[in-house]
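Lab notebook: predicted structure, single chain.

Context: the supervisor wants predicted structures on file for every construct in the current expression panel, including those that have not yet been purified. This is the next one on the list. No modifications to the sequence; it matches the entry in the shared construct table.
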Amino acid sequence: MKLFSIVNWVCLLVFAVVSAEIGHAELPPGTYETLKKEAKEVLQIEVTKVTRLNGDAKTEDPQINYQCEAKVVKVIRSEKGYKPGDKIEFATWWVDPKAGSGFAGPAIPPRIQQGGRGRGYLNPAEAGEE
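Prediction complete. Output recorded below exactly as produced.
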């Protein structure tokens, strides 16, 4: 299974196409479009597994991190040569909007769930980044 890391803000774009929640602008205009355009892997995926890595409503950190596995359904662009049927892994995060009131940082990405489908804009992990 090939491992991916979401670089900088790209994790925000995993399912941005199907998300209406990313509406406020916390980055300069055009940033999301630039990140999408420069993504090395643009894949239509179906999420097959979501594993919660941390996060507890009783802690002070409202951010929950997830490790996801997905099946490539369609390849739009792939520097690594992915094909439909290949498996990928990627990391993402989410903050419950109720717990995240006053949350400072980028727009909260959409919550990814098993069975979800969408377009992923990914960049491979750099050497030593995994």
